[in-house]
Amino acid sequence: MSTPEAGVALMVTVLAGLAALAIALALPAAYAFAVHGRLQGSLETGAALHAAEVVEMTRQNPAFWEFDALQVSAGASGPAIRRRVLDSTGRMVMEAGPPEGLAWPVMARRAPVVDGGRLLGEAEAARSVRPEMLATLAVGGISTLFGLLVFGALRVAPLRMLRQALDRAAYLAAHDLLTGLPNRGIFSDRLRHALGQTRRSRQQVAVLCLDLDRFKEVNDTLGHAAGDMLLRTVARRLGACVRESDTVARLGGDEFAIIQPQVNGIAEVQALAQRIVEAIERPIDLDGPHASVGVSIGIAVAGLGNGRSADPLQMLKDADLALYQAKESGRGRWSFFSPEMNRKLMERRALEADLRKALSEGQFRLAYQPQLDLKTKRVTGAEALLRWQRPGYGNVSPDSFIGLAEEVGLIAQIGNWALQEACRQAVTWPGHLRVAVNVSAVQFRLPGLYESVAAALATSGLHPGRLELEITEGVLLSDTVETLVMLERLRSLGVKIAMDDFGTGYSSLGYLQKFRFDKIKIDRSFVRHLGENIDAEAIVRAVVGMSRTLGIRSNAEGVESQEQADLLASEGCMEVQGYLFGKPMTADDFAEFLKVGGSG
Questions:
Q1: What is the annotated signal peptide range for this record (predicted)?
Q2: Residue 55 · residue 115 · CB < 8 Å
Q3: Which of 263, 270, 37, 25 is nearest to 144 (CA)?
Q4: Are strands 255-263 and 204-213 parallel, antiparallel or unpaired?
Q5: Dihedrals φ, ψ of 481, to 5°?
Q6: Exposure of 104 by Cβ count < 10 A (0-12 exposed, 13-18 middle, 19+ buried)?
Q7: Which residue of 388, 394, 410, 486 has the smallest Cβ count within 10 Å?
Q8: Which of 320, 336, 313, 342 is nearest to 191 (CA)?
Q9: Residue 67: which pLDDT band, with cuts at 50, 70 and 90?
């Protein structure tokens, strides 16, 4: 028993003992006090009456006081009473009572015999209190028995409740309340124990980190109750996949983990992973609706010959990194940790640290790629492209850090800076030129985009019609109503809206009917194959024709040859950009380009 628990048990025992002692003493004491009061009153009354009788007898017989210890025996139907008369000197004059005398103990009370104000003697009434004493002892015995019963009840019941409460608290401290599975704390203890055993055996220990795919969709669409039901079902299915010696735990949210001790080879771990994937992929009945989720699994193995440290925290980190790799591979898969993953993780952390520093130290720059009217060859504007000269690494492609910026929550700050800088530069250009700024799908969904655009326009003084926001088709995939509302709010500022990378994998033709974009940008992957691939030509022809029919300006990206430019012109494409007409350049170089190439 732990020290706090022993202290509580001692306190409960003391309190129960005091309560039992109080009960054992209080009842007989109260009974004895009542009996004593009743007997005392009775005897005092008897003595007073006897004194009055003696006064009367004295008046009738003045020689009464000359009797010498007159003994009178008398029987009684009630309690045996002994009466005595004593003169003023204390000499007994007369005594009347049972012949056998009074049994011990005896209670006696006296009353003065007074006649005409003169004290003649005393009258005494006495009786045995043995029956009352025996009754008091009986009451005491019963009270003691009752006190013992109370002591047992007060001690055993609270201690039992205490034990149950402590057991429950210990269970809750070690288990997940929703699924009943061990939690992270007990998982770590068992993993530490399992790793300790590997040092004394030739077997291995595997840790599997699991993350449910599409769980958030179920939780958001069907509600938290359905999400809880799904998690409980997943917990049961995981339990059915493992051995009795394995440990399944819920680490939080939709994250689970499994310890597989005493592994004889990688094949055993792969077999478990396969069972789990197949079990979780089966549809789950949620009291009516059915949900289909998958699971991604990251695996780390420790033991003989694999070179991994038998450290619980490191194993969890390795398995979690492998889980990240499994999700990157397409979800619904498993991946084993490798040192290469660790190297990539270190590189990613270094990139994130440098990215935060780049934002705070102003290391970002914008490059501007000219956009030209294909028919007149005049510059109509430029697309602002983010550039980062990373210290020690040189120029870093946006493709290498934009995704990370979105993951770590930096994209909004970087996007705001790009908006401010692009507007600040564009206000110095000729008044008919526009500047195009990319808005990522993540930045579009974050709060504050409208306010950032409005602030950039207000701060720079740029006319709203000269700012063009480029959004990808990925923005249009979710939150249809909210997306259209945001597009309309941005349009209300007076800015232009362009659809970037049109046709790269998402179907957004329906959005062209719901929202009138100002420009459609044909992705460079189609332009690159013009003159080489008839399918690419057909797609470009269809997009340009649709744009012309809808009255939307078309822009072709990545034009690098005159042949591509001629084909685009023949199809009626209105605007182009690419190396054929100008590479991305600094703000100063773009200003010089306008002077040399003409801006209008």
A1: none
A2: yes
A3: 25
A4: antiparallel
A5: -65, -50
A6: exposed
A7: 394
A8: 313
A9: low
List phi, psi (to 5°) of 558: 75, 30
User: 184-337 with 351-597: one CATH topology?
Assistant: no
Pairing status of strand 284-285 against strand 290-291? antiparallel
Domain extents in the chain:
3-132, 184-337, 351-597
Element (H, E) at 203: none
Q: Outline where DSSP puts E strands in 434-552.
A: 434-439, 467-472, 496-502, 519-522
Q: Report whether 88 contacts 65 (CB < 8 A).
A: no
Question: What span, in angstroms and rounded, lies between the C-alpha atoms of 300 and 189?
Answer: 17
pLDDT tens for 547-580 read: 888 889 999 999 999 999 999 999 999 999 999 9
Question: In 205-265, which ranges are continuous DSSP H helix?
Answer: 215-222, 224-241
8 Å CB contact between 214 and 332:
no
Q: What is the dihedral of CA 533, 534, 535, 536, to 10 degrees?
A: 60
329-365: pLDDT as tens digits: 777 888 888 877 677 778 888 899 999 999 889 899 9
Highest CATH level, class, for 184-337:
alpha beta
Lowest mean pLDDT among 14-18, 183-187, 293-297, 406-410: 14-18
Longest C-alpha distance within the chain, in Å? Answer: 165
Q: Rounded to 5 degrees, what are φ and ψ at 346?
A: -65, -40
Q: How far apart are the first and last CA of the chain?
A: 90
Strands (E) in 440-512, as ranges, are 467-472, 496-502
Q: Is 582 helix (H, G, I), strand (E, B) or coil?
A: coil
Per-residue burial over 480-514, b = 16 or more CB atoms within 10 Å of its CB, e = otherwise: eeebeebbeebbeeebbbbbbbbbeeeebeebbee
pTM: 0.57
Q: What does the buried/exposed string (b/e) look like for 121-144 if buried means 16 or more CB atoms within 10 Å of the residue's CB? A: bbbbbbbbbeebeeebeebbeebb
